[in-house]
Amino acid sequence: MTSTTQAPRPGAGAAHPEHLGHVIFIAAAAAMGGFLFGYDSSVINGAVEAIRDRYDIGSAALAQVIAIALIGCAIGAATAGRIADRIGRIRCMQIAAVLFTISAVGSALPFALWDLALWRIIGGFAIGMASVIGPAYIAEVAPPAYRGRLGSFQQAAIVVGIAVSQLVNWGILNAADGDQRGKLIGLEAWQVMLGVMVVPAVLYGLLSFAIPESPRFLISVGRRERAREILAEVEGDKIDFDARIAEIEHAMKREEKSSFRDLLGGSFFFKKIVWIGIGLSVFQQFVGINVAFYYSSTLWQSVGIDPSASFFYSFTTSIINIIGTVIAMIFVDRIGRKPLALIGSVGMVVGLALEAWAFSAHLVDGKLPATQGWVALVAAHVFVLFFALSWGVVVWVFLGEMFPNRIRAAALGVAASAQWIANWAITASFPSLADWNLSGTYIIYTAFAALSIPFVLRYVKETKGKALEEMG
Asked: Do residues 44 and 63 lie in contact, with contact meaning Cβ atoms separated by under 8 Å?
């Protein structure tokens, strides 16, 4: 794989204008799993302090309840590729929708702390499946010329899900007079927050019936005519169908041999390209982005901001997240994946370093001094903006594109699993690290953001403009 870009092949580069709207709908429907991913990941932010109070648990135990969903995510991500190869991408989406729904109902009506954790694991498994199936399906269906922008729908859906969950949480909190344990429709406010996810879960399931199966999967099970019909829908009817199907068949024959064993090799257990995928996943999480979405309300309350305002700042951060993602969607196919990653890394270093400085101040009457308080708020938004316009999008695009066909399914599963394990490590450690030294915690995140720069420069190759069949 080289860092140079290549022009798309005739007929495979772009959908005809009359087909583009249909392709966009397909990508958006598939990315609904990303919406649920974002919603479920962030909705717990509104319940953290209520769970701590209701079950009378300390920071370490609380962190495990919050983070335990990520164990399910890692398992779901590791197995989703295999499940999808056996029963199809669409059926896999439908299974995830059912699991999302079950998790939402169970989380809203827990008997005790242990079954709340169980429901979160089930929801995590569904998130893990969606995290793999969404970008993989979109990469397989989208014409190469639009693949980067359509692939970024996954991250766009994630950030919209995060913002909507924060807005819903804020509305529910206000309806409960600012009390996370206040009563609403016979439940505590935090239970309603978790239960509302039933609505997008059901919508995801319904949308999965409105989009076609991946042509690559259909060809792999011998349904060539149906694959031809779908290729006509998404790439136009002027392409050479026989040549296109033959190209995909050749790639699928190599993919059928894909297994975990195929990832092994080199001096350090995995092949180099697999380690690069793992590295991208780990750096994406070790900058501490999900602290902003799992714990932001708790974080702001810890430095003296009242609960209602803390929920509002969580929402404004989510809006900045959306803006950054839109910027990435505009530029990911224009300037490429690698330049965006480098720009984002530099911006994240600045934002995180300023947060570390602000949190180093001594609290006055339980609050940060005015200057440090404003710096912390602005820097948090700067950090989220630069993450969203770079690593939030390009890592998912890279993982959907960078691996050779013969190892793509297995390698994507391993890289996504690494992402969830890294996410778990950050999520489970933050409450205890914050109790130890909040500024020191952000210095650690700053260091990882800085290290991501030489990693990208040295190891990551551009994938802009290449067809999946050209990766190798």
From this structure: no
Asked if 141 and 215 touch (Cβ cutoff 8 Å), the reply is yes
Give the position of tokens 């005790």. 112
> CA quadruple 384, 385, 391, 394: dihedral positive or negative?
positive
Using CA atoms, how far apart are residues 190 and 194, in angstroms rounded to an integer?
A: 6
pTM of the model: 0.74
Which residue bears the tokens 């495979």?
12
E strand segments, 200-293: 264-268, 270
Identify each DSSP E strand in 107-185 by its residue range: 183-184
pLDDT at 6 over 70: no
CA distances from 264 to 260, 282, 355 (A): 7, 19, 40
CA–CA gap between residue 383 and residue 373 (Å, rounded):
15
* Arithmetic mean of pLDDT, 457-471: 70
pLDDT digits (tens, 9 = 90+) for 386-435: 999 999 888 978 887 888 877 777 787 788 778 878 988 898 888 888 88
Structure-token match 């999302």, residue found: 100
| pLDDT greater than 70 at residue 113 | yes
Q: Do residues 80 and 73 touch, judged by C-beta distance below 8 A?
A: no
Minimal CA–CA distance to 150: which of 7, 8, 329? 329
Backbone angles phi, psi at 212, to 5 degrees: -80, 160
DSSP type of residue 47: T
Residue 326's alpha-carbon distances to 155, 164, 195, in angstroms, are 10, 16, 29
pLDDT of residue 285: 94
Summary count for the chain: helices (H), strands (E)? 22, 4
Place of tokens 């257990």: 269
User: Of 432, 428, 434, nearest to 73 (Cα)?
Assistant: 428
In eight-state DSSP terms, residue 403 is S
| Domain spans of the chain, in order of start | 17-211+257-470
Distance CA 344, CA 279 (A): 16
CA distance 296 to 285: 16
- Give the tokens for residue 258: 């894909």
Q: Answer yes or no: is pLDDT of 4 > 50.
A: no
What tokens does 81 get?
């590729």
Residue 17: CA atoms inside 13 Å, Cβ hemisphere, count? 0
Contact 267, 327 (CB under 8 A): no
DSSP class of 13: S
Cα–Cα distances (Å) from 230 to 237, 304, 405, 429, in that order, read 10, 56, 21, 46
Give the helix, strand, coil percentages of the chain, each rounded to 5.
75, 5, 20
Task: Let me know if 79 is exposed, middle or buried by CB neighbors in 10 A (0-12, 13-18, 19+).
Answer: middle
Tell the CATH topology of 17-211+257-470.
Growth Hormone; Chain: A; (1.20.1250)
By residue count, the chain amounts to: 472
